[in-house]
Amino acid sequence: MRTSYLFDHPTSCRECGKAAAKHTDTYRMVANEPYSGNMVVVKKKTYVSFGKDCMTLTLWDGETYILKYGYFCSLNCTSAYANRMVRTFES
Ligand SMILES: [Zn+2]
């Protein structure tokens, strides 16, 4: 099971140092209007569906970051770190 961790500050993978991604939500809505909420628009895509202007907004709260596997970006990084710990503590 994947265990994602959220952080309220920029962080990075403890193994490889890759920066954590912004934790965003994507919203689809009809009408291509300027976004007036208090979230940060990370990405905006407009398109026409059934003759109506539509848009997909990717919004970020401006402070939350996510690492998909706890303190790590991938399972490879997780096991590399864990194995190094075992080597460190059992040798
Ligand atoms: Zn990593």
Features:
91 residues, alpha+beta, four-stranded antiparallel sheet, 1 helix, elongated, binds zinc ion
Description of the structure:
There is one protein chain. With 91 residues, the chain is of the alpha+beta class. It has one domain (5-90). The chain has one helix and four strands. The chain has one helix at residues 75-90; strands at residues 5-7, 21-30, 40-49, 52-67. Strands 1, 2, 3 and 4 form a four-stranded antiparallel sheet that branches. A hairpin with a 2-residue loop joins strand 3 and strand 4. The radius of gyration is 19 Å and the shape is elongated. It starts with a strand and ends with a helix. The model has no long low-confidence stretch (mean pLDDT 94). The structure holds zinc ion. The site of zinc ion has 8 residues, from loops.
Give the biggest sheet: 4 strands, antiparallel
Amino- and carboxy-terminal Cα gap: 30 Å
Radius of gyration: 19 Å
Question: Unreliable runs, pLDDT <50, ≥5 residues?
Answer: none
Q: What are the secondary-structure elements, in order, as H or E?
A: EEEEH
Count helical runs: 1
Ligands, deduplicated: zinc ion
Gross morphology is elongated
